[in-house]
Amino acid sequence: MQALLARSPVIPVVAIEDAAAAPALARALLAGGLSVIEVTLRTDDALAAVAAIARDVPDITVGAGTLTTAGQVDAARDAGARFLVSPGYSDAIVEAAEHAGLSLLPGVSTATELMRAQADGFDHVKFFPAVPSGGIGALNAFSGPFPAMRFCPTGGVHSGNYLDFLQLPNVPCVGGSWLTPADAVAAGDWSHIETLAASAAEGRR
Fold it and tell me: What does the record note on quaternary structure (predicted)?
């Protein structure tokens, strides 16, 4: 997970309604300089989108996000997901991910959850929902008791504040949906998405 999160300063978090558009979307992000994508399992076509990206755009690392049940782990693996992301901390998902042989970025928002994650051997976690859970102030506070923990803040992170998060020493990357606006995806405006990805990859607002 450490190597994965170091590859891109921003991980696009994408809800894909039509799997047919997934490869073109992934190619636009890759052309902009981002080589990791998280497809959220919030749509009917999500697993098909993961499969299409894994098959047609092998140069981008595709993961499945918003996992809330252990049963989704095998489905994501079978679709071709190379990593998993959950919004919260679940022992069942942790066990299923280990059994499936996939890296997991579990979600946390409290010190108690961080202690559980740390006890289970995690040193990289998703901080979600980042802004409602205290944002930069919370991450600064966590750095004291959890100096080795690294966070990927997601939730309320956008083009106007992501660079502020990336300045924190315990934040190697952020996750966000602003790189793939729904209207641009629906219109197939891949050049716009590529431009947004390039700005993020270069650390520009």
Answer: Homotrimer.
CATH of the domain at 145: 3.20.20.70
User: Do 123 and 2 form a contact (C-beta atoms < 8 A)?
Assistant: yes
- Domain membership of residue 205 (yes or no) is no
Question: How is residue 172 annotated by DSSP?
Answer: S
**For position 197, what pLDDT does the model report?**
97
Q: 129 near 109, Cβ under 8 Å?
A: yes
pTM over 0.85: yes
| Cα distance between residue 113 and residue 132, in whole Å | 16
Look up residue 190 and give its two tokens: 């891949």
pLDDT tens per residue, range 85-126: 999 999 999 999 999 999 999 999 999 999 999 999 999 999
196 near 32, Cβ under 8 Å?
yes
Q: Tell me how far CA of residue 154 lies from CA of 53, 157, 162, 165, in angstroms.
A: 22, 6, 10, 10
**14: containing domain:** 2-200
Q: Which residues are catalytic?
A: 38, 126
Distance CA 172, CA 126 (A): 11
Over the stretch 154-190, which tens digit does the pLDDT of each residue have?
999 999 999 999 999 999 999 999 999 999 999 999 9
Per-residue confidence (pLDDT) for residue 203, from 0 to 100: 87
